[in-house]
Amino acid sequence: MIGENLRHWGREFWAEYRQDRAGLVGVGLLVLFLFLLAFEPFIVPFPEGSKRWHDITYWADNPPSAAPAWTNWFRAKKSAVAAVIREAETSTEESDGVRLVRRSFVYEYAYDVPPLDVVARFTATGDVPTALTVSRPDGVELELFSEQFTAGDKEPVRISVDRTSQNAVYAFLKKYESEETAGLIDIKQLDPTSVIFAEAGAGMDADPKPLHGRYVFTLSTMLLGEDRAADDPQLVISGRVSGLLGTDNSKRDLWTGIVAGVKWALLIGLLTAFVSVSVGVIAGIASAYFRGWIEVVIQRVFEIIVNLPLLPVLIILAAVFKLNIWYFMGIMCIYFWTGPVKTVYSMALQIKEETYIEASRAIGAGSGRIIFRHMVPLLVPYSFASMALYVPGAIVYEATVSLLGLGDARIVTWGQILHDALVGGAVLSGLWWWIVPPGLLIALVGMTFAFVGFAMDKILHPKLRTR
User: I need a labelling partner for 458 at 20 to 30 A (CA). Which of 133, 176, 245, 283 fits?
Assistant: First the structure.
């Protein structure tokens, strides 16, 4: 019977709700956020990004302050896009127990601005002599790196062309420059990738012209015994543009950070709103039902909290005690529970005088049964509407405190990303992709729950339909 009533009520509610266009927009946005939350590991390029957001080594291969890849559509000169090449053609030569393993990575270069760096990665075990060469489209082959690594068991090895190949690139450059010009070139200031991806000829350092075509980077490793190994090779192209939302000045992928922030935004908003409204509804009902000293205590506490400003209190406590996110949510609950109290109190006073409440008392029903069986169910619909309207406030308060650098640094929130952008000079540097997405998402989440809350309010409170 109860299930049937609930289904009937649900159908009626949805029939009215879907007539509110803003409410439908809110539901659509909520579904989108839930999709991002559920499929986070599959839609971000760095699945461990939320856990290792502050681990600089995890982001080492990304370009710093790179614009989103799609900005190439609006540029006359196309910049190299960041990419990871894992497929390699492997060949092995063996002689007297020594294996020479060559892995060749093919990179099709079709851009006007070369990548910032090219990085070869693999895991090494033992002593592994290693060389990295590149074969250009014009037939020129350059040895970029040659060295022996001494590693432990499957120790990560990273070879950066930008840091290790200046001498090799300078030797290549000298073949096409006069002695006077070559003598003026500072090897330490030389940009290897701009030369590697440029047409061979005089002036390719000062005014490089892009050499489009097929580049083959070959990673050669010599294994001097069965206990030596070089596994999991990959070639990372550190492009000038990267990913869906670019990177920050610490090389962190911003799309990964934005998606990671969804779960914290929803958790902070929904949990704070649920606890606050639940406490507020119970407090309002108890105040109206018991009256006397209970009403006096609840109303005095209500008046004290209402007259204390939340944001300054949050800022002071966060600055002094370095609060984590759970303390933040607890403090917001202490303030937010006062929101529904007065409305619930007035509604509960009317419900208390109903005939069926008097009848329940007459047959010996206890206060707890009357409150939770007869009064709370009538106020639950109002609670849902109030809850939806409290979510944006909780998210904005957390973002504000985080923007000031006082948030919980152990988690990734949109407020933390905005704080990093402020500290990193994103505004002065024109890094709009670091500022706009987190700010826009905060506004969108607020708009989502505002639309849902207002739509529910109109349905559950018919007097509001004329507003």
Answer: 283
